[in-house]
Amino acid sequence: GHLNKINNRCLTPKRLLGVTGKMEKEQKIRRDSMIRQRVIGIAIIFLLCCIGGTLIAKEEKKKKQREHIKQAGNNNSNNVRLNSDSAVLMQTSSTGPTEEELQATVDKLDAEVRKIKETGVIMESNRESLITTAKLQDATRKLLVKRYGSVEPYRVRIDLEFQPSIPDYEENGSKGSILIEMAPSSLVPHSVYNFMEEAKNWMMGIWMMGAFHRVAGHVLQVTVGFSNPVKHLAFQEYSEKYPHKKGTVGYCGRPSGPCWY
């Protein structure tokens, strides 16, 4: 009887196991909670690092854009190179329509002008034609500023590669370049825009980008790669201040382009 009393006051194996299991369960809950807190903490730190990295990258990009714009202003020109390792200088404005909106306006007016031309009217004297082409020119000027900057004249540098059959190949090598200066967009914006777009898309050619393929008396003519998306001009744009003469560049064919000489 004395032993039974002691046993009644002591923990039986069954009760002892129950308490031990409860303690293990509580410890597991605390351990899982600590693990969750650590995971959440690591995730928050990672997220903050990503946000910080993005903000730094954006700030660096803005800084580079400001430097480009400043440099363009000092040089008083914008340049587009026709090679694979260069980029088009971009200058953007924080006000007014976006580049996409301006592009949509130009595309719409371009299509309207082409539709008028298909009717066979004399574009230089038809009232509807003159009004629509003037609207296209005005919209194109705005797009040029948005895409290529407001500093003119625009310039395009063409990097050339000569074949070994050229007479002075051994003397001058295979490389050369031509720098072409655009006419003011105030006079022939449609023509300037098309040429800048040809330069911008020059490396899109799958089979070829383009080449001087015709030497005929007074002209050296360039063919444009089949993959270049630029179409011929919507109308014949001409300024008496920039006549066709030696050393100038013009579009070939009627309607003009995209090939040029």
How many beta-strand runs?
Answer: 5
Distance between the termini: 122 Å
Strand content range: 5-15%
Largest sheet: 3 strands, mixed
Q: Write down the overall mean pLDDT.
A: 77
Helices and strands, in order, run as HHEHHEHEHEE
Give the low-confidence spans. 1-13, 72-93
Helical element count?
6
Give the class from helix and strand content and strand pairing: alpha+beta
Shape, please?
Answer: elongated
What is the spatial order of strands in the main beta sheet?
1-2-3
**Radius of gyration from CA coordinates:** 35 Å
Estimated helix fraction: 40-55%
Characterization of this structure:
- The structure is a single chain.
- The chain has 261 residues and is an alpha+beta fold.
- 49% of the residues lie in helices and 12% in strands.
- The chain has helices spanning 2-9, 13-75, 99-118, 127-148, 169-172, 189-200, and strands at residues 78-81, 154-161, 175-181, 210-216, 219-224.
- Helix 3 (99-118) runs antiparallel to helix 4.
- It is elongated and about 100 Å long.
- The termini are far apart.
